[in-house]
Amino acid sequence: MRVKSYQRKLDIKNGCIDLSHGSGGRATTELVLGLFHEAFGNEWLARCNDQSAFGVRSGRMVMTTDSYVVSPLFFPGGNIGSLAVHGTINDVAMAGARPLYLAASFILEEGFRLSDLKAIADSMGAAARAAGVHIITGDTKVVERGKADGLFISTTGVGVLANGLELSAENARIGDRVLVSGCLGNHGVAIMSRRHNLAFQVDIVSDSAALHDLVAVMVAAGGASIRVMRDPTRGGLAATLNEIAHQSSLGFRLQEEAIPVKPVVTAACELLGLDPLHVANEGKLVAIVAADMADAVLAAMKAHPLGCDAADIGEAVADHHHLVQMSTSFGGGRIVDWLSGEQLPRIC
Amino acid sequence: MKYADEFRDKIIAQRLAQTIGTEANPQRAYRFMEFCGGHTHAIARYGLEDLLPANVRLIHGPGCPVCVLPTSRIDMAIRLVARPQVTLCVYGDLMRVPGTQGQSLLRARALGADIRMVYSTLDAIRIAEHTPDQQVVFFAIGFETTAPATAVMIRLAKKKRLKNLSVFCNHVLTPPAMQSILDSPDIQTIGQAEIDGFIGPAHVSTIIGTEPYGRLADEFGEPIVIAGFEPLDVMQAILMLVRQVNDGRSEVQNQYSRAVKREGNHRAVEEMSNVFELRDQFEWRGLGLIPDSGLKLKRAYAKFDAEARFVMHEQPVADNPACECGAILRGMKRPVNCKLFGTVCTPETPIGSCMVSSEGACAAHWTYGRGRGHQLRRA
User: Structure pTM?
Assistant: First the structure.
């Protein structure tokens, strides 16, 4: 209770971030305790140290880090806070690992409204709790007005990987099947629909979600027959499969008709001149699975709420050009290339 | 997706492909140019060439306004936006178009220039109204399709008495470019047109109608079929062209009758003719100077002309001599016949016009078709 003695109540309703919140003085403590600890509350944060100690389990540790600069900060289906939790959990989970702990750093712009910050921190806390992951350490910095776009968040994740599991993008083999966990492009289209110079009415929400539970179900069904898992975020499915093709020195052949995309996403992409295969996802994964176990893994995915629209969309083939090719729904063929240049600024 | 899926039906496509295969005379070649980048994109995106017999070949034309914009015009825009208190409004696909010495609008913006990507000419009006201390310039580009929107913007700017909005006009016209391709000295010396027919513009024709193509069909004996941008539109247009060639006809036919009327869109044409007049000539990247092919502002609207307001000068820039874009745009060569293709010239580092936008012939081939043999056709 010694800490509480110098805590004053933040005016979250009307207040905003000023430079004193980053000075390391009393205002910083007020912000950390009154807003972040309230949102994330757990036994590690309660000790108010500059770090947190945790036990190391058997198996191997997995670590990842990611920064979040999405614009706008709030979008249909989530906000930068939930995204910063889901995205980093997913990067840990794509190793086949169980995520355990997160660290979170905030770069705040002078003038940022405390009510918005609270909404973002609360949704981070809720996302972490729902995933069974704890945010156990963090940092806050404030920069002058105009030096940041409201708020940037960086999260680092730690997880544990069972012995014997070795997922890596160079592991794909010719004949493997390509599975996706659901409809593609929802996140990117949801973000685009809210950009100030592009606002259009579309009934779609971001798919932002933590995938580690789905991954656990898949690993239980497929074990070591799952060669690679990736979440197709920036650059979409196209970028992810091109990366794997290069790292595994092979090609992919997809069937366009098998790739799940919601009609509303197809329509929005049509309007904007985009390819849904280039559009970002934040709650989907791609798995490359040995052919003999693909049906079993797919069935396990379909039985999970986050994988109910999962599909087998193609196979790994020999190709010294390392191309991703697709038989189009029209009956022709084409390459699915990396996106050239920038599709849109800041979608994650 | 209503009104789109119907034009992407696989079964109908196979039926059309079979009919084309049956009716195309195996003793001869059919070389059809699709003028528009929208067609080029659809052909590559849906893999239409895989459905055609080997003797029906598509030649990708110059109908991508970003591709044919000469380097010198990009250089002018970069110099303009380097001035203090100038805000340049552009359509997004212009950002990466290379100027000289590795310059681009994207790079200029990174170095501090105020360049805004807009989706409509009305965005430029809004920006001008909100930033009265800035000189807002709209980088107008496109064929007859986008020119009416620019004309409306200028008319509104005049009505609203906006003193801080002007237009850097780069609008070009389609029929003169088609004529230029057919007039090409290369083709004249061979003595035989390399092009047996045109898949005519879709969106452009919704504005200008089908009449302007009549003279081209008559004078050059070229069949022209106006076609929509959906894959079945293109397949049907190819069948119509094959039939015209077989019958020895050279008519203008309208496949895209659900959108294109013979007389076009009166209102849009009127907006254009109120505001614009013809330039004596305008440079097309890859094709050179083409007479009567560019638009400029009429005298009544001269004060909205950025080239006059800011005394902008065009300094001609020579294209890379190894670049084969000119020959590719005329159907004399294919992208893979160019030494630069896929080596130094890629969508990330375009050298020639055809690689600049995804609708360009080289970029479409690079993105959707490179390294593809006939493996998918067999599959």
Answer: 0.86
